[in-house]
Amino acid sequence: MTDVPECITPTDISIMSDAEIDELLDRVRSSRLRAYQLYVEAEKEKQLVRDSKLRDKLTQQCRMMQKEVIRADKVIDCLEKRINNIRTIQLELGELP
Q1: How far apart are the C-alpha atoms of 31 and 33, rounded to whole Å?
Q2: Domain span including residue 58
């Protein structure tokens, strides 16, 4: 006959000795602790994956921002040239105070 886990055919605790009850409780505690530890490890792994994905997104956003800063610098340079041209024309017209 195969060895069936005790959870399928539980022993009647009313006929167990104190030592057997203590052993059963220790097995239950140990099993639950193992399950909790596996859960904690799985959650840590999931957090590492989430963090990795977020770091990738952050890197991508920083690259995109750098490109936009370069474009903004070019626009600002164009605006400064335009303002200088306007001031030059105003000086020639004598309209600056």
Answers
A1: 5
A2: 16-93
